[in-house]
Specification:
Strand content: 25-35%
Oligomer: single chain
Helix content: 25-40%
Bound molecules: shikimate-3-phosphate
CATH architecture of the largest domain: Alpha-beta prism
Number of strands: 23
Number of helices: 12
Strand order of the largest sheet: 2-15-17-16
Largest sheet: 4 strands, mixed
Structural class: alpha/beta
Length: about 450
């Protein structure tokens, strides 16, 4: 349980933990490459550690050099270096026990694409939340590629049993705009015979595509189609991971809710497929300046984001924008409650199958804080200019719900308590040590 005392304003320079999506993917692609990769500023959060442990069980040697110190910007740098001794696309070993993806959907869905084309049997499971997240979405295309894969409850849920097979490329139109699904098929396609073509009606985060290209895979875009050729080798690499824009969003939202705030966040990832939150805030009238500095070796742009408090207007957000801000939608409810006018979010039904049902978790908690909200199957409607009052809240063991309501609590009247708040470490180690939270 964590107590949050409201504060008046937030000022200063911050760095945020390294990008979670990129950190997962660097382990996966380095493990599949032929040789030694070195990654600096790697995110040692619980989710990424699940990915590390899975690959260790698959025979990959991974050295972690953690650096758990408080950085000069008062921010814990829960980062460090990681060295991965890749075994090549065909070099993974039969795991001696069940693989455990913990709380991480990214770990389970991406690794399943790789396990499908090995020559051994593996079983992958997860925690109480992950074991109830939908896996039919990956099982269907993997089976079309020739995979033998079984899920619990008529192929719906983990644990997954995967019997490695020789796969062939397919042409597949994504029925759900999910980067985890897209990446699963791309990773399976890497060691499949022939060409894999994915049509993506709505664009989702493209870290996997950027990395594969940078590492020498034959991958190209033709409009909304991604075309990947079978590959025999991936090059090992050295790179660093920029800050996570999703983690930055909690600081950005705090600055927009607390009068006279002025912050800057350095070395944060600015991948256009992740910029939906910032783009929407700009449309709401937020005073935000984004300055691109450079791109990493894996073609990930990064730079600085400066935010200043100011009045905001409500906004309408629909299906086409959702994948670019999927993890930030709970925060948009909080911001919508303070903005002038009405905020309507639709086409976000995917939120119901995240670490928890994030639509119901937002609605339940925000109502406890005295805010009126209308729940919809695929989103919510919220009127602005409402005031938060302190309350007793539940994280539902979901990192983004815990952090979203910590932000709401900072601008509330009276103190708030959040049960299960330590779950923030899934993506943001050091979140509760931020200077915003006093003891
Ligand atoms: C992720 C993709 C998103 C996002 C998750 C991380 C990824 O999930 O919500 O936090 O790293 O690919 P979906 O692709 O299932 O929407």
């Amino acid at each position: 349980m964590r107590k949050i005392i409201p504060i008046k304003t937030i000022k200063g320079n911050f760095i945020v933990p390294s990008d979670k999506s990129i950190s997962h993917r660097v382990i996966i692609l380095a493990a599949l490459s032929n040789g030694r990769s070195l990654i600096r500023n790697f995110l040692f959060s619980n989710d990424c550690i699940s990915t590390i442990e899975c690959f260790r069980k698959l025979g990959v040697t991974i050295e972690c050099r953690r650096k758990d110190k408080v950085g000069k910007d008062n921010d814990r740098e829960n980062a460090g270096e990681i060295i991965i001794h890749g075994r090549g696309l065909k070099g993974l070993c039969k795991p001696p026990e069940i693989l455990d993806a913990g709380n991480s959907g990214t770990t389970m869905r991406l690794i399943s694409g790789i396990l499908a084309s090995t020559n051994f049997l593996s079983i992958i499971t997860g925690d109480d939340s992950l074991r109830f997240r939908p896996m039919g979405r990956i099982i269907k295309p993997l089976k079309m590629m020739g995979a033998e894969i079984y899920g619990r409850n008529e192929n719906k849920y983990p644990p997954l049993t995967i019997i490695g097979k020789k796969l062939k490329g397919i042409e597949y139109c994504l029925p759900i705009p999910s980067a985890q699904l897209k990446s699963c098929i791309l990773l399976a396609g890497l060691s499949s015979e022939g060409t894999t073509i994915i049509e993506e009606p709505v664009v989702s985060r493209d870290h996997t595509e950027r990395m594969l290209k940078a590492l020498g895979a034959s991958i190209k875009h033709e409009g909304r189609r991604i075309i990947l050729e079978e590959k025999s080798k991936l090059a090992p690499f050295e790179t660093w991971v920029p800050g996570d824009i999703s983690s930055a969003s909690y600081l950005i939202a705090s600055a927009l809710l607390l009068p006279e705030s002025k912050i800057s966040i350095r070395n944060v990832g600015l991948n256009p497929t992740r910029m939906g939150f910032v783009n929407v805030l700009k449309k709401m009238g937020a005073n935000i300046r984004v300055t691109k500095k450079d791109t990493t070796l894996l073609n990930e742009p990064y730079g600085e984001i400066e935010v200043q408090f100011g009045p905001l207007n409500g906004i309408k957000i629909g299906a086409d924008e959702i994948p670019t801000l999927i993890d930030e939608i709970p925060l948009l409810a909080i911001i919508g409650a303070k903005a002038k006018g009405r905020t309507i979010i639709s086409g976000a039904g995917e939120l119901r199958v995240k670490e928890t049902d994030r639509i119901s978790a937002v609605v339940e908690n925000i109502r406890c804080m005295g805010i009126e909200i209308e729940e919809r199957e695929d989103g919510f409607i919220i009127d602005g200019e409402q005031d938060f009052k302190g309350a007793m809240l539940e994280s539902r063991k979901d990192h983004r719900i815990a952090m979203t309501f910590a932000v709401a609590a900072l601008s509330a009247k009276g103190e708030t308590k959040i049960k299960g708040a330590s779950i923030a470490g899934i993506s943001y180690p050091g979140f509760w040590e931020l200077p915003l939270f006093q003891d």
